[in-house]
């Protein structure tokens, strides 16, 4: 068939593999993905990595909910190795990346994930209620004392950082450096990367060093935290290597921070832009908060996309893939699929069912901390809107598509009676 897309390598504005595409307006991006879904088959887009030593290659863009969920259920056919990020990683980063859950497949992925999965089940999350409530109250109080202010700096960054750091076992003294390193690591292997290879390597080294220090301490002084779980764990009779420990710390701190941070900021934006939905939520916070959180995740899609690699010849959505083909799963498009969601561009906190893929589709790579993330967001907004139902964004958010994450980096906020 004749594709309605320009797929020449020089046309980066119309190619979702390049930063220029993500600088388009939300309306332009939505229209693009709508056309991509309407094409009814994956479209191939060429890509030229920025590294001088890298040859050009390309990806098939998967945009529909059905095809993305099908691919996600079959890691034996669609692998996360050698990379689940856009670029084929450079030799300098490949060793560290191989220790990450993001770039693993079962059975190794299953074994590694099992080590910490019990810390993030719904039952385990209930164990953290006192911790989360305490952090939420503190962050809410600090935010309201400072309003008008930047919601991202004062709340969206602080809440997930303090919670995941406490659960994992990272001291308060390391919080600032963790935030800086996290922002760099989220851009590994992606064309929007604003950081040099040296900066990325430095951030990876920081996490490895931090984990090494924490591990040595916890071997002598065990505690009820994830670091202790990791240093005591064995897989097939062996303890985790230093590289595996460092990779675990990165995935826990990066994943535990970025998705919650993004959802918190998106939700304030959505409630501000949709006052009738905010009034509906305020009328019954306890009953409607779970639906509001799910809808904020769907609408924001903090995890924008993920890569998979075909390990054998196969067919999806009528398209024949060949061994070695690279695919991008555009969750941001699947969450607007007209065949799955009624009025997909509307923010509707009563949407039910809501089978979004905001934390990935069902399968082995579904977000490990999804239950924790949803719980944090719900507890925070219940507290915030109880004490400050008039809080709102005062300016449009500053969006950044950083690596795999759709984040908001600045969001001024105020209460109705305060200057903004």
UniProtKB/TrEMBL annotation:
Protein origin, superkingdom: Bacteria
One Gene Ontology term of the molecular function aspect: iron ion binding
An individual GO BP term: cholesterol catabolic process
Enzyme class: oxidoreductase
UniProt-listed Enzyme Commission number(s): 1.14.-.-
Family: Belongs to the cytochrome P450 family.
Protein name: Putative cytochrome P450 124
Organism of derivation: Actinomadura rubteroloni
Coiled coil: none
Keyword line: Heme, Iron, Metal-binding, Monooxygenase, Oxidoreductase
């Amino acid at each position: 068939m004749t594709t309605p897309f320009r797929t020449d390598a020089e046309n980066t504005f119309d190619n979702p593999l390049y930063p220029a595409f993500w600088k388009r307006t939300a309306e332009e991006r939505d229209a693009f993905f709508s056309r991509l879904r309407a094409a009814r088959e994956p479209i191939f887009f060429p890509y030229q990595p920025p590294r001088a030593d890298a040859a050009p290659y390309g990806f098939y863009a998967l945009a529909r909910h059905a095809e993305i969920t099908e691919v996600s259920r079959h890691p034996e056919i669609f692998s996360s190795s050698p990379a689940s990020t856009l670029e084929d990683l450079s030799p300098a980063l490949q060793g560290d990346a191989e220790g990450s859950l993001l770039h693993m497949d079962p059975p190794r992925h299953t074994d590694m994930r099992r080590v910490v999965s019990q810390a993030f089940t719904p039952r385990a999350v209930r164990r953290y209620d006192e911790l989360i409530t305490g952090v939420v109250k503190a962050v809410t109080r600090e935010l309201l004392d400072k309003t008008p202010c930047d919601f991202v700096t004062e709340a969206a960054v602080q809440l997930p950082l303090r919670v995941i750091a406490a659960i994992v076992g990272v001291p308060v003294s390391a919080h600032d450096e963790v935030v800086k390193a996290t922002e760099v690591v989220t851009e590994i292997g992606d064309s929007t990367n604003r950081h040099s290879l040296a900066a990325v390597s430095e951030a990876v080294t920081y996490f490895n060093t931090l984990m090494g220090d924490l591990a040595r301490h916890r071997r002598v002084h065990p505690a009820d935290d994830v670091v202790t779980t990791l240093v005591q764990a064995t897989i097939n009779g062996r303890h985790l290597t230093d590289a595996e420990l460092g990779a675990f710390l990165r995935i826990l701190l990066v994943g535990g921070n970025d998705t919650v941070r993004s959802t918190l900021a998106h939700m304030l934006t959505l409630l501000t832009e949709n006052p009738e939905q905010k009034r509906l939520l305020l009328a019954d916070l306890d009953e409607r908060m779970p639906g509001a959180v799910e809808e904020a995740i769907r609408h924001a899609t903090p995890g924008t996309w993920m890569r998979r690699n075909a390990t054998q010849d196969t067919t999806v959505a009528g398209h024949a893939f060949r061994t070695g083909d690279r695919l991008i799963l555009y969750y941001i498009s699947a969450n607007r699929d007209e065949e799955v969601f009624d009025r997909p561009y509307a923010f509707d906190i009563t949407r039910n069912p809501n089978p979004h893929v905001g934390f990935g589709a069902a399968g082995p790579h579904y977000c490990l901390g999804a239950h924790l993330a949803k719980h944090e967001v719900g507890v925070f907004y219940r507290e915030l809107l109880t004490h400050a139902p008039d809080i709102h964004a005062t300016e449009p958010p500053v969006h950044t598509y950083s690596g795999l994450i759709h984040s908001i980096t600045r969001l001024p906020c105020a209460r109705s009676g305060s200057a903004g």
